[in-house]
């Protein structure tokens, strides 16, 4: 067990390191105009993946947890998950693609280019559709390390492709997009082969009761996913409305500072979360200790950026050397996001996630207050505005802790229990 955990952790950190380095190199080497468009595409694809999943993986995992190791039922559950994801996609994709086309045009992409890029994004999404929900069964089949190895190899290949293209002078917008599409395409047969070895996918059919159960989860989760995506798209829209191509490129490039935190985030998820989830006493002090530990890498990043902004900007690239104030705002945003997410996932993995909706009114209040606090027609103002979004999740964490305290769970009075139904 320890060997498998170590292998999984090493693979996870290696995958994150390869992905982060590839992202930093793209920001460093791509021309500003190209990288602005690439930033829009990257954020749009992330939004497409989040919204078209819309809670489907959560529903699939819940059903697999009740039916595994019945492999025939596992195949039916996966088919139900894919069917529900396509249904969600029919609703959300047209709007997302229209927004993406507008953002591309505002960042000076020619109409034909915007149409081509949206088509490529749709193709990449289709590949993701074929591999990203069914892979959940590998976790139940005790093949997490095999799943991790797929993503590690693909991220390493992506990094190698970026380096090779730069070496031959072929790194540009088109090849950068092609790397993403090809990577998604290569993942499909690798995942399907592994999944087919565990469950009989061929000939399986979705059951109506499975689809209904997954749909119930989607109805609860999708509004929060929409709200999360709204935050990232709002920042892009503000920059687009001011026609700030450099601002869009800088937003994408400076956001790469969060790559420095990805390995520690993987480490936290692999070690801290399971330990707190299984704790039976001293829950508040345990949560506070783990949450403080999870915030330390972000604090170190902010301190490093404050003291040596030029050093951080060196890794991002020469196009952005003048953004010393702006890179600090991005570091604060990355640190706050990581710290609040770590604090929240500690609670969520004990089943204490009934008050996540609290972040909605908090973020809405922040959006209303931001124009009074910042100049949103300037890049630094937009970045400080974005840095305030974690306030929403921080508010949800605070209410969650209060609810757990009222139920007596933080004192360890009822080991292993959760405040079920609270806030629902």
In short:
The chain has 424 residues and is an all-alpha fold. Helices cover 78% and strands 0% of the residues.
Architecture overview:
The two termini are 37 Å apart. The protein has helices at residues 2-29, 32-53, 56-67, 71-106, 111-131, 137-140, 144-167, 173-196, 208-241, 245-254, 262-277, 283-307, 309-316, 324-348, 359-373, 379-387, 390-407. It is mainly alpha-helical and 424 residues long. It is 78% helix and 0% strand. It has 2 domains: 1-221, no CATH class; 244-424, no CATH class.
Give the helix tally. 17
Measure the end-to-end span: 37 Å
Strand % is: under 5%
- Which segments are poorly predicted (pLDDT under 50) over 5 or more consecutive residues? 413-424
Task: Tell me the number of structural domains.
Answer: 2
Q: What is the approximate shape?
A: globular
What secondary-structure arrangement, pairings included, does this model have?
Elements: H1 2-29, H2 32-53, H3 56-67, H4 71-106, H5 111-131, H6 137-140, H7 144-167, H8 173-196, H9 208-241, H10 245-254, H11 262-277, H12 283-307, H13 309-316, H14 324-348, H15 359-373, H16 379-387, H17 390-407
Helix pairs in contact: 1-7, 1-11, 2-4, 2-5, 2-9, 2-10, 3-4, 3-9, 4-5, 4-9, 5-8, 7-8, 9-16, 11-12, 11-14, 12-13, 12-14, 13-14, 14-16, 14-17, 15-17
Key attributes of the depicted protein:
424 residues, mainly alpha, 2 domains, 0% strand, globular
